[in-house]
Amino acid sequence: MTNRFLPAPGAPRRLAAAQLSNSVGDGAYYVCSALYFTRVVGLSPAQIGLALTLAWAVGSVAGVPLGALADRRGPRGLSVLLAVATACSVASFLFIRSYGAFLCAVVLYAVSQCGLAAARQALLAGVVAPQERTGVLAHLQSTLNAGLALGAALGGLALGVGTERAYLSVFALDAVGFLVCAALLRGLPLVAPVPGRAAGEPRLAVLRDRPYALVTLLNAVLLLRMPLLSLALPLWVVQRTTAPGWVVSALFVLNTLAVTLFQVRLARKVGDLPSAGRALRVSGLVTALSCAVFAAAALPGPAWAAGALLVVGALLLSDGEMRQSAGSWQIGFALAPAERMGQYQGFFGTGVPVARTLGPLLLTTLVVLWGIPGWLLLGALLLSASYAMGPAVRWARSASAPAVRVPA
């Protein structure tokens, strides 16, 4: 029996526990990693940025073949292996003292993370009934946010101490978290691998599925909202508004709490492709409105008014994020063939590393350099992508429907 915070016992709850185990370490890692590699290892911000860009580019490409491997060999075993590989890549940070070693480690980290995401989605599809997947994913998203918030608090303590040993303890925590994740995934039921390819079938069929590629591209555009809270909005608050700097932290906490508390409730309204399309259209409207509110925060006025507008914008953005997540989960699973779930989820999941790679440059250009017109253009782009998803889904659905045989 499910409740507001816990998924059903069995596989869904074990998946949530695995999500929590690695997200706590990730939250601490995200807070501390950049400062550790600049202050302790001595790398420049430009070196770190280039390495991360290359790593996520490689990871996004590797996700599809690793997802296909999960289909052929079984997603549980590969999920466990990739969780262990992620733990090893994080543990290697304990010993890295050069740029070359750092580049190798972050590439392994990104490849393992992208492959793990695809394999875990295929594993979830194998152990959770289709009508329950969106609800389970909503619980996992809430768990992820709660874990990241707890981890960020622990990372903040490490930053307060500021010693090399404190930073290294964060990496050790993250590595142990992924090992615990691997052990929990190992306890899930086996999902049988799919049969081999039919004669003439391409090795990676998803790469030839143009309708699904369009859906994936539109989803990647919608995921550009990901760097908003972590990058674009902090720069906007500090450089263009009269609001105090601490508002940035408050907005991040507000978003985390909103997703943790309300993601499951909003996802209950999404159970098929029509409801997913409605969720995405509403998401586009709400997110576009949040962009307009953020833009208005830069207009002349007192600091309290700017802060109030930023809070309203953050609430709207959180609502749009939750609706977009629920809709995209349903679409990504519903349009993927059951026998190629891993490779399709690996391809659909490329939207995340693409948003992480291209999003910072695009958003800083639109928001920081162009100002209010940039915010309005960003809102129009997200709104257009959300409304374009409906026709794209209908095309993908019709393309995957079996052909009707007409008798001679």
Written overview of the protein:
This protein has 2 domains: 1-191, MFS general substrate transporter like domains (Growth Hormone, Chain: A, Up-down Bundle); 206-400, Growth Hormone, Chain: A (Up-down Bundle). 52% of the residues are buried. α8 packs antiparallel against α9. The protein has 408 residues and is mostly helical. The radius of gyration is 21 Å and the shape is globular. The longest helix has 32 residues, at 303-334. It has helices at residues 11-39, 45-73, 75-92, 99-127, 133-161, 164-186, 210-222, 226-240, 247-267, 273-296, 303-334, 341-348, 351-369, 372-400.
List strands and helices in order, with pairings:
Blueprint: H1 11-39, H2 45-73, H3 75-92, H4 99-127, H5 133-161, H6 164-186, H7 210-222, H8 226-240, H9 247-267, H10 273-296, H11 303-334, H12 341-348, H13 351-369, H14 372-400
Helix pairs in contact: 1-5, 1-6, 2-3, 2-4, 2-12, 2-13, 3-4, 3-6, 4-12, 5-6, 5-9, 5-11, 7-13, 7-14, 8-9, 8-13, 9-11, 10-11, 10-14, 13-14
